[in-house]
Every structure is written in structure tokens, then in C-alpha cells.
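Input record (Table S2, row 327):
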Amino acid sequence: MQRYPWQQQLIDSKITIDQLANLLQLPIEQLGGNTEASKLFPLRATKHYLDKIKKQDAQDPLLLQILPHIAETLTVPGYDNDPLQEKEFNPVPGLLHKYHSRVLLVTTGSCAIHCRYCFRRNFPYEDNQPSQNAWALPLEYIATHPEIDEVILSGGDPLTLNDKLLGSLIEKISAIPHIKRLRFHSRIPIILPERITSEFIQLFDNTRLQVIMVVHTNHANEIDAQTKQIATQLRLANMHLLNQTVLLKNINDNATTLANLSHVLFDCGIQPYYLHLLDKVNGSAHFDIPVETAKHLYDELQSLVSGYLVPKLVCEEPHARSKKMAY
Ligand SMILES: *Cc1c(COP(=O)(O)O)cnc(C)c1O
Ligand code: SF4
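Output record (iron/sulfur cluster complex):
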């Protein structure tokens, strides 16, 4: 079967720590990767992303997002495999209904990058693995809950699915009269821009749904001229573009870095939406920033940029009916 170049890139995104060390021209001791950690959650990143990491710099903010670290193997009090207790909000496999008006569809467990801080790094995808037909139950659930007006396609990364599957899912969702909006949460427009094919764009040609794409960027270095091009294409297809960021120690925990990210995003027509405090998932404690520090940082960010460039500082609480303002 012929593959699109992006599908090959997706396959090639699985790499070893040795390959990473070679690529970055760093001796393995200096790189600091840990194979035990990579057994817990494999190392993965696209070529597009890897090309943006500075060579010979073990502290590069893009590198730190993907490097398996020995700290991930430690057990830290207060950290959990399911920090948000999502299992309680999983009425049918593949669907999370936690907030009143919107549901989240776990469309796939695949991602084109493995973010070490990911709160779904231990998610039981096997129990939530919707094959082509298995969307029947989530769709039936949505159809019988008129309070739901928005469906969020998440994962994993929903854009790792092929256009045929996505097309059929979009069609089925738009056939439910009370659904007004369709939202994607994806890192792919930023880290695998080749995935945004004209076939993908055409999926939205005739839809009655309003479509929102929430990208996920943590540092301005992730964004380049191609990002702007892709964002322009998506906007021409009437998509509303938002960004969410996770506040991460040694990666983006200073106001200038965050201000710069907001500027670069807005240049591309992407609106800053959320700045998340870390979800306390096992293996992520080394990224944590004390809440008080986060608040100081946020004050400073607000003083640096226009109001609309300030994302909302939020955290997730296991039983809350929305994200909670952390400020
Ligand atoms: C974050 C999240 C949403 C979306 O929340 P918004 O505040 O609308 O962006 C929906 N469902 C779940 C389970 C979530 O975690
Ligand atoms: S689900 Fe999102 S945050 Fe988690 S590894 Fe995949 S791309 Fe990264």
C-alpha cells in the first residue's frame, strides 16, 4: 500500500536514545537519556521537530520535552497514573464526559511525538481503542445527550488518523443535530506540517459545524515559516486556531519565553488559549513548578504583553466541572 510521506514520517518518529545522541552530536553521557524511562514511554519525535533542536545543547527546550529522563522512573508522593481520575468520566469506551456541554473522544493512542510530561502517558488506550466501527457507542451516547454541543477529537493525536477515517467520523458527528462545534486537540500542525494535506482541508469544505483547532506549543522555537503557512491554510478553511501550553520547568518557566511564544503564535494567527499547570502524572515530577512561582511568572507575563496575548492560567482538578483558574 502506498503511504503518504507524512505517514512514513510518523513511522520514522520512533527513535532510540543513541540515534538522538548522534543526531544532536552529543556524547550519550552528556545527553543524559535513560533507557529505563524510555521503556515506560518510548522516545518519539518527528524529523521536523528534531531539526529544530540545537546541536550539542543538552539543555535545549525542545530536547527536554522529549528526552526520557531517569527522574521518570522514581515514585514521587502526590503523583499518580490517572491524576485526573478520568476513568470515572468514561461512560462508554473511547469517550470522556466530564464537562457539561462538551465531550472528548479518545480517537487513537498514537502520537507523532511523545511529550514526557503527558498526562495521558499511562492512559489505558487498549480499553479505549475505537476501531472503525467502535465509534458507534460514543456516537450513540452523544446523540442521546442533547446538552452536548461540542465534540472534541483528542487522543493521542487525532491527526494521526487517516483522512478516510476522519472524514467518516466528521460526517457522523455532523449528522447529530445538537452538535454545533467540532474541536481538534493536536500537536501535528506544528510538528508534522506535511500531514495537513489538501485532502484533509477538503474534509471541512461543506461542513455545517464550526471547527476549532487547538494546537499545543510550549516554546517559540517550535514554530517556523511552515507553521505560518499551515495556519493560514487552516484559517482559509474557516478554522478557529487556539494554542495551549503546559508550564514546564527549564523549558518555558520564564515570562519572556512565554511572551515570545504568544507573539510568535499571534503572528501565525493562533490565539493563546490555556497555560496549564502540570498534571501530576507519574514520571513528570521533574517538570513541576510551585504554584506561587507560576503566579509570579504570570503577573510578569501580563505586564509584558497585550491582554489578548495572555493565555488563561489553569489547572485541572479531578472532580471539577471545568478547568480551574489557577490565578
Ligand atoms: C480540557 C477538557 C475539555 C475541554 O475543556 P475546555 O475548557 O472547553 O477547553 C473537555 N473535556 C475534558 C475531559 C477535558 O479534560
Ligand atoms: S497526547 Fe499530546 S501531550 Fe500526550 S504525548 Fe501525545 S502529543 Fe504529546
